[in-house]
Every structure is written in structure tokens, then in C-alpha cells.
Amino acid sequence: MLLITQAIFAQGSWGRINIPTNLNLNSVYFTDSLYGWVAGDSGTILHTKDGGINWAFQESQTSNNIVYVFFLNRNLGWASSFDFTEPPYGTELLKTTDGGANWTLSSYPEENIFMNCILFLDSLNGWMGGSPHAIVRTGDGGVSWSQAEVDTSTLAFFPVLKISFFNEQYGYASGGMFDIAGVTWRTDNGGEKWYAIDPSEAPADEVHGLHLFDSVTVLGAGGDPDFGYGVGMLRTANGGVNWNYDELSIQGNAYDLDFRNDTEAWAPLGPRRKLIYSLDAGDSWTDINSPDSTAIYDMIFPDTLHGYAVGRNGAFLKYTPPVPVSVESGYPDQLHQIKLHQNSPNPFRTETIISIEIPPVSIKNPGKKTRLKLVVINAVGEKVSELLDQPYEPGNYEVSFKSMDLPAGIYYYQLLAYYPGKAPAVVSTKKMLLLK
Fold it and tell me: Which of 26, 53, 87, 227 has the fewest CB atoms within 10 Å distance of its CB?
């Protein structure tokens, strides 16, 4: 696939990758770094098994606009589409048990309810949120649904756009209506009853995204779709009893909110054709142009090293995290001269060779050895193999890495150098792709 445009900054980079559709994409879901689905206009669902390199169309059984897709694992997934073809209008629900090779289609039993989001906690227990108002649950994998009890406050029955659970007990939802009110809901009893935000604390526009730091600390994102006001950030530190709302100096509306790790967060601004990011858990934000000036609406980080986003005209973005490659000051000069070469072959299936070069000119004292360690790290930052750890003289070295029973995916190999009295220094880190 062709990498068209890339926006690069200190915390990582987003690049736009060609996929085989130019239809608008509304939703993206990845269960891990490899398996993902995108969905959008005209019943479009595409699936990748290699992190977005190759895609296959799936038969969704509908030609209507698919607004949301969710997968519990690589096999079990659900999606919702809006049926406006002829009365009675409503929601079409899609389900697959084989990764989308086959989708089954059914109609949500209540007319004129349009489900905007889906969340399953396990194979049986799930939630949906919809418009004009709906928080519904299932205990049988989506065969039947029942309306959850909500309080009777002024804002309780506004549209629901997103539902998130910290655990089986504590959950939050967000939504609202443009130029009327943004709403959040909370439950502390597993969804038996939901409580809406106090009207005095509600913002003027809908809240699209939620991030749960823990059971009581939550950040929400929204704003003004007309760009007249700043992106809105809504916070609670007491389980949703009280909320504080702030507007950024960046105009627009955050259509989603996702954290890469504990401190780095991203939000797409849709038709503003911008992304905003925070490196301090949402305390401050910076805006950048989206790659190829594309309108982006939905994104996901399945782990700390991988991110994906979708938007208008078949836009699919892939995130590349920052990789430490520089050597800190205070180490011997020869450390800057050591070279870690790209593995070959790459991609590989069973075995690949990693080469290391220690040039003689970099050694001020001939015969002096440098202790080097070479490790392999998986997509979530876990060490899966240690290939060497010993002193080395100047020279060229080759190290074999065998995949053994490791799953397919992207891996990183990192070379570290050790010197007395100092912390290990990262000489270089490179990426390799294991195929099966």
C-alpha cells in the first residue's frame, strides 16, 4: 500500500494509507495490532489481517450507511446501520461470529430509534446508545434488548453517542444535541440505573468521546460543529456527580477521544481537517493538520504502539509511535558510531538476520570491548527475546532471530550499550514484520 502523506512530530506520526474504497468511513475497530475493520457508506465493511497493509471487502448484507462497528475479539463483532429506505425507519443490527466472513442482519425492534454506538463487555452482555434517546442492554448476545432505567432530569433523554465501562459496576455515556446541550450519564450499579449531568454543568454542544482514567476520573471531548467556539473538554473527578467544562483556544468539535498511553491523547476534529493531541493527559492540547487535509471522525489505539483512524472519502490513517534512536550525552564517542542494520529478510516468516557494525575508527583504545544487548519487543512493549548480551570488540556481527511460536505482527529490535556507572543507552531501535 502507498503511504501518501505523513505528518511528523516529536510524539509520533500519522500517515494516510490507500485502501480500496473512496466512500466515507464512519467507524474503525482493531482488536489488536493486526486485525481490524472499517465501516461506512453503502454498507461498506473492509477487513485487514496485517495492520492495514491488505484489505478485503466483506458482505454486510445491507446497502445502508453503517455508522458503528465493534469487535469483542477477532471473531465476534457487531455493527449498526441506519435504514431510511422506506418506512418504518430504524436501525439494522449486524452480527458476525467468524470475523466478518459472514454477517447476519436483523432489525432493531423499535421504530425510529437509531443506534450510534455499541459496546460488549463479553459475548452475552452488551450496550447500545442511540437517538432520539436510548441506553439499551442485552444479556443474550444481542438477540433481545431492553431499555435501561434513567433518571427523569431535564437532560436524561437526549441522544446517546458513546458508552464506556471501567468495569462491570462503573459506566459512563455521553451525547447531547448541537446548540442545545451536551450530556453525560453515569452508573455505579452495573447499568441498573443511569444519572444524567446536572443541567447547570452541561455544555452547549454534544459530547462525543470519553476516556475513563479510573472509576471516578473521566475526561470527555466535544465542541462546536460550526467552528464558532473552542473544542470542549469536560471533566469529573468524583464519579460524574459534578463536571467542569473548559473550551480550548482551538475552534471545532472533537468527534472522538482516544489515549495512546497514560498521558498521550488524540482527538479528530472532523471537517476542521485537523487532529489535536495532548502529552499531559489532556491538560493542554496542540492542533495539527490531518494528513492530506482529510476530515477524520473516528480513531482507535489497540495498544500503545498502534493507532488507526478513518474519515471522509475512504481516508485511513495509521499511527507510528516515537522510537528512541538517539544516544544521550555523556557516553563514549564510539557509541554514536555503532550501527544496527535493518534485518533481512523483512518481512520474514521463520528466521531473519540482524547485523551489527562496530567500526574500528570509533574505538579510541584498540582491543577495548563494549557490552551490547540486543532484545526483541512485541507490539505492546513486552520483551519476547534476548538475542545477545556480552562484550564485543570492533567488527561486524550477525545475529539470527527465529520466530518460533510468536504470532504474526510488527516487532521491534533494540540495541543497548552498557558502560560502568551509567544507565543502559539505546543505540538504535528498528522495526520488523513477522508473517505467518
Answer: 87
